[in-house]
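Class, study these two lines:
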Amino acid sequence: MKNLKVLVLLALAFTLAFSVVACQPAVEEPAIEEALVEEPVAEESVAEEPVAEEPVAEEPAEEEVAEEPATEEVTVTVWSWRTEDEDAYNEIFDVYEAAHPGVTVEFVPFVATDYNNILATGLTGEGGPDVAQLRAYGGIQPLIEAGQLLPLDGEIESLANFPAGLLKGATALSDGRIYGVPFGVQAFTAFYNVAIFEELGLEEPATWNEFIAVLDALQAADYIAISAPAKDTWMLPLIHDAVAAPRYGSTEFEAEILSGETDFNDPDYVASLGVIQDLQPYFPEDVVGIDYNSSKTLFLTEQAGIFIGGSFEVGFWRNEGPDLNLGVFRIPAPPESITDSVVPGWMDGSFGVNALSDSPDAAKELVNWMGTPEFGQMFTEKIKQLSAIPGMVPTDPLLVEFAELFAETPASYLTLVNFRYGDPSGSTLLGEGIQSMFLGNATPDSVAASMQEGVSQWFTPGE
């Protein structure tokens, strides 16, 4: 395992790829004055003169001590799309509750595919969350435009812990303000089953020819070479970038398409779609009928040797297949690639505050804490993902591998980071296009043309 310097490099690399009781004085006991004592009057034989009574000093009244106000009980509800993380988040929030008497954090997860609609509805009235897990980049923009989130810059001190490049994913296009505290960074490449590789005498491939030889050997041994879904189209643009980004030029192409020097009809981009088409025989039979969960099951049950996936799946493998021996390798660059092989990544999302929260101050205090190293280290250890807070050190060996690979060859996940700001989104167009290509209803050229036509409806180069 590499030392902390590696993880610092991770934060730096990500930034480059995508452009931040005063002791109360002791209360003294009130001084108690001595009571005045009257001297006895001597008796005289003569008639007594009336003696004026000396005033008797009253004992000072005891000073009233103000009672400490009772701790106000408040519940902060947090919504998330990560049902698999419920136990881990509850453990994390137990730590927060222990340090904040009277505060209860209620973690409420929803199925990821339903979450966007549920959240959009929940933020419009009563019964919604105080704190919401927010999609990044284009995904957060509709909620900001609807006035459903509170701006956090100038309010949340821990935002200073994040590089500016990371904060882009939680920043409004409309006013440039920041509406979320980032929680994680994701990277995407190939998992492999070490036991199957050892059984077949295979090693991590270093070249494209070696990669194809590994796939052929897996198939010859009656394994599915690559477990991939094509029914859930959201995974297809990720697989495309993990495999074929070097073919279209990765970060070089990203700069050129954003500036207007090229577009999705670029021959190298078209060729990159052909790379994915050529890999289809190595995917499960009837891949268009395989959804995301089924593809994970095929890998989990050791029916497949490779799963192209993300750092966000490490926790799933550890929980559901604790005895699996897994490794990670960077997919080699295909022939005629413009750049060397890369590991695409992105800021996964953030936590923001509902504009209609009944407890906005408590909600802000919680998200401020979620931007601190205390939260960040627990996040990477318990959630088993890469924290967005620079300097956090993963302890899981698979996460360490992801961190090292991403630090060495970082690239942005092109359609998520840049082309989800309008409708139709680049990710939707690409996912549906690759699915159609697998069905035999589209070609690399037609998919690229559809991409360009779709994003041109809302994307203006150079802006």
About this structure: The longest helix spans residues 4-18. The radius of gyration is 31 Å. The CA atoms of residues 344 and 413 lie 5 Å apart. The longest strand covers residues 181-193.
